[in-house]
Known about the structure:
Layout: E1 2-5, E2 11-17, E3 20-27, H1 50-55, E4 79-80, E5 85-87, E6 92-94, E7 100-103, H2 106-115, E8 117-118
Antiparallel strand pairs: 1-2, 2-3, 4-5, 4-8, 5-6, 6-7
Keywords: Cell projection, Cilium, Flagellum
Protein name: MORN5 protein
Subcellular location: Cell projection, Cilium, Flagellum
Amino acid sequence: EGELLFPSGGTYRAVWHRGVPTQGKYTFADGLEYKDKKWHYCDGYDRRFYTEICSGLKPAGISQLTNLDPPQKIPEGCYDCGDGFYNPETRVIVDYKLRFLRNADDDEHEWIIRTCRKAWDETIEHKPKP
């Protein structure tokens, strides 16, 4: 039996045979356990984040945009891709401490642009009713 510790804080605890896991379980840094079958986390049926499952939903009108609350501040022009920030101009992903993680291939680039939260690239101001 042994455990892999990931830089993101996740752990993979498994029974190993000659360096190959025969059975195991991955747990995310926040305590959420990954389920191989019937995985319904943040899907179309139940879109709550793990912190909302544990602590309850916020009152009406107050949105929680990520599992982290408050969410990470995204650098201008970048996307929050879950394990760090993605800059579509350089196609580089850095962790939340701005350390290099990887270069995005075409498939990851398209997925991030299509699905991930982006930093605001325009200022929105409150406009009182006339």
